[in-house]
Write a structure and sequence with these properties.
By secondary structure, this protein is of the alpha/beta class. The chain has one domain (6-260): 3-Layer(aba) Sandwich (Rossmann fold). The chain has helices at residues 6-25, 36-42, 47-50, 55-58, 88-97, 110-122, 160-170, 188-193, 198-202, 211-220, 241-250, and strands at residues 78-82, 102-107, 128-132, 145-151, 171-184, 209-210, 224-232, 253-260. Strands 1, 2, 3, 4, 5, 6, 7 and 8 form an eight-stranded mixed beta sheet that branches. Strand 4, helix 7 (160-170) and strand 5 (171-184) form a beta-alpha-beta unit.
């Protein structure tokens, strides 16, 4: 992985903010990645999961998989949703942990956080707490959450090693991690040459890492029982021929990867 300078990092984050401000503000627009209810259904969300959610939350869904598989949540859990967007995943998590729990919703994009606040009010969920920030520097105390979820976000983060260490820091001993993300399988040299182009980061491919490297980076941060539980040909659902071609070049797919923080 090539080094990202501070200036490149800011340009990348600006591109990401611009892209997802557009998704929040113009949900009916055609994007190069699947969005909305149709995207949820092809990625494995059940009708039961989506039932009763505000349509204004689902319409701006821009995830790449379904991180809700398995026994991720328990009643009363404190959950952190990294890159919560308009709130689809956060609201599903909030139902599962109940009013005795908490769901912290971390996002870089003001437009998404504003929309999430409105959606939480519509759903009458007052245990959903918006937090402005990034995965590289999470404004929460050490060992403060039981579960971390994320959906299509870590591939957008310039310094993944730092972000994974932050996830480990804020997770309590014995806590669970469930990430849906993009991973690549080939032509990494070509990928590295494109990494200083902010627009390509926002398109979800060039910031991704190889699946084995993803597992190794989480293990290096301290996580155990790291496993890929699902892989999906996510980009085949893109309506952009250009995006489908880039994804095929790099062997890009979406994965759901789960892990835990050791008890001791």
């Amino acid at each position: 992985m090539v080094a990202i300078t501070s200036m490149q990092r800011e340009h990348i984050l600006d591109a990401v903010r611009a892209m997802y401000t557009d998704v929040a503000s113009c949900p009916g627009k055609s994007f190069h990645f699947p969005t909305g209810r149709d995207a949820c259904l092809v990625l494995g969300y059940s009708s039961e999961m989506l039932q009763g959610l505000p349509e204004s939350a689902v319409e701006s869904f821009a995830g790449v998989g379904c991180p809700h598989q398995g026994e991720v949540f328990r009643e009363g859990d404190h959950v952190l949703d990294i890159g919560s967007g308009s709130g689809t995943d956060a609201l599903i998590a909030a139902r599962r942990v109940g009013a005795s729990g908490r769901v912290y919703c971390l996002d870089l994009t003001d437009a998404m956080l504003d929309k999430l606040k409105r959606n939480a009010a519509k759903a009458a969920v007052d245990w959903l707490l918006p937090v402005h920030g990034s995965a590289e520097s999470i404004p929460l105390p050490d060992a403060s959450v039981d579960v971390i979820i994320s959906n299509g976000v870590m591939n957008l983060v310039p310094d993944k090693g730092r972000a994974f260490r932050e996830l480990y820091r804020v997770l309590r001993p014995g806590g669970r991690l469930s990430l849906a993300d993009v991973a690549v399988s080939k032509d990494i040299d070509m990928l590295e040459e494109a990494q200083d182009i902010p627009r390509l980061w926002a398109e979800c491919v060039v910031g991704a890492v190889e699946k084995p490297q993803y597992v190794l980076q989480l293990a290096a941060a301290g996580f155990r029982d790291v496993s890929v539980i699902e892989e999906t040909d996510y980009f085949s659902h893109s309506n952009s021929e250009h995006t489908r071609a880039i994804a095929a070049t790099f062997g890009a797919n979406s994965i759901v990867i789960q892990a835990r923080k050791p008890e001791v």
